[in-house]
Specification:
The complex is a heterotrimer of chains A (273), B (338) and C (303). Chain A has 273 residues and is mainly α. Chain A has 12 helices and no strands. Classes of the chains: A mainly alpha (273), B alpha+beta (338), C mainly alpha (303).
Chain lengths: 273, 338, 303
Amino acid sequence: MRSVGSKVTGVAGAALLTLLLFPIYWMIASSLTPESRLFQSPPLLPSTLSLDHYRALFDERDFLIPIRNSLVVAATTTMVALPVAALCAYALARLRFRGRGVLLALILAVSMFPQISIVPPLYLILRELRLLDTYPGLVLPYVTFSAPLAVWLLTAFFRQLSPELEEAAMLDGASRLRALWDVVLPLAVPGVATAAILTFLYCWNEFLFALSFTLGPERYTVPVAVTLFRGRYQVPWGQVLAATVVATVPVALLVLTCQRRIVAGLTAGASKG
Amino acid sequence: MAAVRIEAVAKTYPNGHRAIRHVDLAIDEGEFVVLVGPSGCGKSTLLRLIAGLETPTSGRIVIGDADATGLPPQARDLAMVFQSYALYPHMSVRDNLAYGLKVRRLDQAVVAQRVADVAAALDISALLQRRPAQLSGGQRQRVALGRAMVRQPKAFLLDEPLSNLDPALRAQARAELRRLHRRLGVTVVYVTHDQEEAMTLGGRIAVMRDGAIEQVAPPLDVYARPANVFVAGFIGAPAMNFVPATLAGIDAPAGAVAGIRPQDVVLGASGQLQAVVDLVEPRGHDHLLHLRLDASGVPPLLAVVAGGAPPALGAGVLLTLPRERLHLFDGRTGTRLS
Amino acid sequence: MSGQATAIEREERRLARWLVAPALVFILLGSLVPIAATAWEALHGHDLRLPWLGRPFVGLANFVEAIGDPRFTSALLHTVGFAAITVPLELGLGLALALIMHTARRGRALIRLAALLPWAIPTVVAALVWRFMFDAQAGIITAPLRTLALVGESFDWFVHPLAAWVPIGAADIWKTTPFVAILLLAGLQTIDPALHEAAQMDGAGAVRRFGTITLPLLRPALVVAAAFRMLDALRLFDVAYVMTGGGPGTATEPLSLYAFIALMQRLRFGYGSALSVTVFLLTFAFALIWVRTLGRSLVGDRT
């Protein structure tokens, strides 16, 4: 009885695995297929491989620019959002203060806001401040929207650390802030790393704000640049797919190296009940 | 070294839980006082109030000559050994020991000297480079102790520091603690739920229940003259037997309760009471008998019988409750009757 | 209250305020104030292409216009319909995937990787790849269907108003089902296997055990997953924009996209803001209902 069950699971598992991974495989395979073969009925395994699309991507379209933009924005956001979130999370996890419940509810609420609802005034404000089409113009909304998840994650993480360590440090004469720096943060590295990864992923993938607040190819992030690839007459699928592969590489690397961490972070963030 | 005074302290948590109802306790300089009681009695809360990790709802904590109630833990110059030891896992043993001194900006040479001295005193000099995770339970306990000693604080607060050790190690650690206290003459407030530990370590023990101190006195006094039924039943193992005073043949106010320790029950050829042996527990050196009295409504009496030939299971025995060994308590309040 | 003791607590509160301040500033400036500003803007007539008309206060006129706007009602229908169809599908498929991941003995790491990649990939990338796969000419999905004569020679998913939803749904389900699976897997892993063993000894078969042990204990995780997915589905934008641009015509235009077009393309900021507010109200209404039913079910469970 067991073996039949596990065979069925095995087959189903393999089927699901294929379904999940096939589009990615197809994306890579197609990006390596020369233009001429792209629009005929393509075989599952490409026979000829060509790097034409990638060459065009970087020579003609200078895809390095969006990559640079995305990296700068994601890195800056992460470097701003993490300390902000960590301090807030520590206060939520350890200190007693009025309005704690309200703050938690607020943070939860912000993560539920539809981004489109924020676009009009932010657009106008950024326009006034001449921050449209600049890095800071994107970092502000990104920090606002990535911080809640980071706060949630880090609060859950800090709660798991034994409060006795900080108490011992305080009895040793350390102020709360000193105890945070000397004792809590070194032990919080896994949590902070996870929050950083999730923040980075959020920024790398974000589309609506980038679409609304950048005006030209000089500041487009990767998702925007990839979407706005319009040939004059037809979508240049070869290059688009090559671009999607390039956009996926950093993400894939992160996921490959930090699988466990990411899953732990997601489930911790989700079990807010 | 300083004296610690707890004056009319009470602590009620925001959710309504009254952890400490009312405590007055004066601990002399250099004294070793043990707070003992069942879980939830408030002993750990009291310790944390002294440490400053909790703030009292009312009352004062006085350390030395100064009112410390408004002082944060950092400013009280106390050292605490936690039940879990709370060693900084990312620091070496040496850094753990030195942390409190470094935070107070002591001179490097002084820090090094004190760390070396304490390490030598506790025989952990060989472990200075290691991390807490690499140490055994007993070693961690000594490092936790060392971290407290190195600070030369006004008083030591110990929160069940031995409960995580193996029983064999516990006895040894207990003896070491006594020796250290004799040598250093420090003020110690020690919390435990183990009444045997309290008896062997304390210069005075404070028996706590439901947020208040039931009795505070040297161990033998508490053992010989417990102030009420609760203390009588809590201190001493196996626990004291309680029977109606009339059953014990005592002329006492109505409803009074008489207590007698199992070791004091006398089995013999003659006796005032009849009982049947319900259970025999061999303890090696002696036997613990559960005796069912002929009188109804009385729980089984425990008696300790020395030697190797206890009465058989089911046998009928005669027992005496010597008058001079009885403790009399009021039936309603539980307080000791003279 | 012991006056000196409160000094310590006051210090703690002061420190907390400082620690929380930066996050609070970002939240206030980055989302609370903008939301209020959007709501305020929605009450004005503001067309960036007609600046000489100024910015008059028009009350609820924008909302009234929206109610009478057939494009708005279609978009609303699209959004709610899309959510109502895809979310249960994702929950079901996610549960199946989670069960497989849970019972799989070998290749667990590979499966986890396969589950994480779709989630981690930018939504626009997923949309583009699936767009490509559904493409009338080059698409690997369309071609075999044509060969099998299941569809006509000139069939193009993106030309047909209803069929165009299929690629959108496929992309969204592909991208989010693994995330749901991961959430549910975590829930599965908290179920004590001893419960299943006891039930087995009591004679319960796999299906019965699933219904009476697994599902009920998985309810909290299911509720959380459902809530997340629902909120995201109501805010659908990226996939629709990239795959179809809302087309053909406006057949696949969700509410967020219509708001975006009104704002950024037609530059009608007043009207677009009103549309944005309705998206907000939609998610808010859902969140409210969810919290209410969740609260009630939690209290009810305490019997």
